[in-house]
Amino acid sequence: MKIIEIDEKKCDGCGTCISKCPGGAIQLVDGKARFMGVSLCDGAGVCIGKCPNGAITIKTIED
Ligand code: SF4
Question: In angstroms, rounded to a whole number, what is the distance separating the alpha carbons of residues 55 and 10?
Answer without folding.
Answer: 5
